[in-house]
Amino acid sequence: MTAQVLEFLGGNPGRTALFEAVERVISELGDCELSVAKTQISWGNPFKFAFLSNPPRSLVRQGRAEECLLLSFGLDHREVHPRIAAAANPYPDRWTHHVVLAEPGDIDETVKNWLECGYIFAKLKKRRR
Q: Is residue 60 helix, strand or coil?
């Protein structure tokens, strides 16, 4: 874990555990690049396919926002599932989904499958012209 990642997570042990759980799943998918910005941590291959950010308070139960992270991932279709807090269609054939993570166990087989699909989608994706 880099100093940038630790700074982004603010030294919060719960968020650190969430990051490590997501990082473990993504590292099993294959080669990808981690980048840290002011508002998010992202992974790409070369296109970005997964993101961790601070969740909007409206998506988190009261008093839990400091412990949670928002996992966002891109797919070529809209996924409908109770775990998905929101989805947006920023471009044709691209859907961005958002899932609130409160504990490492939230990264279950369903979330792993979404991350794998996002990884494959990003690898096959072509630049818009």
A: coil
Cα 6-34-119 angle, rounded to 5 deg: 130
Tokens of 77: 């279709």
Cα separation of 39 and 49, whole Å? Answer: 16
CA–CA gap between residue 73 and residue 115 (Å, rounded): 7
Give the integer Cα–Cα distance in Å for 109 and 97.
16
**In this predicted model, what pLDDT tens digit does every residue of 8-30 receive, in sequence order?**
999 899 999 999 999 999 999 99
How far apart are alpha carbons 44 and 65 in whole angstroms? 26
Whole-model pTM above 0.85?
A: yes
Separation between Cα atoms, residue 116 and residue 63, nearest integer Å: 31
